[in-house]
Task: structure prediction
Amino acid sequence: MSPPRVELQGAAVRMGPRDLWSGLDLSVPEGEFLAVLGPNGAGKTTLLKVLLGLVPLAAGTVRVNGAPPRLGDHELGYVPQQQAFDRSLPIRGRDLVRFGLDGHRWGLPRHARAIRERVEEVLQAVGAGAYADAPVGLLSGGEQQRLRIAQALLGDPRVLLCDEPLLALDLGSQRAVTRLIDERRRDAGTPVIFVTHEVNPVLPYVDRILYLVRGKWAIGTPAEILTSERLSALYGIEVDVIKVRDRYLVVSAEDELPTEPGAHAHHGHSH
Result:
């Protein structure tokens, strides 16, 4: 059996006087799709920053591809949150993919032709070739996010980190972007750690869920984690999880309503 691509043991992250999470034991093997859920401020994005070498642990250990995290690791691909570009921005799609490219950092030849060929390869891989020369500010959110995925794949990463890549996308674009990420996972065995505020769009692809809340955490399959008993224990309030046609609805009569894993209701009213 291959060693895990990502491994944390007894890991803790501290922000000021409080622990975002602690005692975290997590092992992510090749080919796994791990969804990371939890309310705002629970430390989901911080987990990705730990793996990227941007945030140190307060306790415990972390290894990525068998080594401590390091800045500029070309074996890590990163897909950020969707943020719209200014419509007047003159950068082309292929420029965005190549933006910030450093031959040494990405493990690519410095030869300009080799870089152009690699950029074209990943553009075609994500189906963005048709608008690669269009200004990014004029592209749809889904098209822009395809380009960000191409950028993440540029260094042929062994682990793919995704930080809420579906935010502000319509349902069709959410599905297309998720399928694209999953294709990479299946074709190359690249494990995916996917931070999201809603699990429903990615549920068909998820192997396990890491749920973070109030310094506590739970790991398991969707069927194990998305239950009334498990979420009530994590949040410390009474939570009902209702499954409707393969979609999850979280319901609570408490003032503090969990916003994950999917659509939710408060005092009987859907939001």
Summary: The longest helix spans residues 171-188. Residues 103-107, 257-271 have pLDDT under 50 and may be disordered.
